[in-house]
Amino acid sequence: MLKSVWTALEDWSFSQQMVDEPFWFPALETLHVGALTILVGSMIFVDLRLMGLAGMRETMRGHLRILTVAWAAFIVAAVSGALMFAPAAVRYAGNSAFQWKMLALVLAGLNMLAFHAGPWRRIAEWDAESVPARAKIAGAISLALWIAVVILGRYVPFTQ
Q1: What is the DSSP letter of 54?
Q2: Measured between alpha carbons, how far is 133 from 157 in angstroms, rounded to an integer?
Q3: What are the tens digits of pLDDT across the range 58-67?
């Protein structure tokens, strides 16, 4: 079933344009890497604060304002990544580095949901003081997963 979806994506007219026109893929890749840089940079900033390793002079809520920028960058990275995926969907779907990258992205999202369902609900209690262990762990997991996304993304073109 999924293979037919991937094949349909490859047959999409925009996918064909990306293959035929040398402009599209490098342009989208530049956009993707730029957005990912902003996204991961923002997440590293927030994660280091959560872990108590940087930015301790400002409240956690102050640091989390950067997440608006991170969400915008995530949307740009997701759209540009999907458009780069489309012309070679069957190949990418079977690529182990791509699969691991997508798993790391999903786990990063689940970690974020767990953080917002847990430690974030009590931020008023700890924001100006020490960060609770659960929040530090969420920050460490997030940092590791975003680093994994970047590394695995670099491996995608070199693996099958």
Answers
A1: S
A2: 38
A3: 777 777 778 8
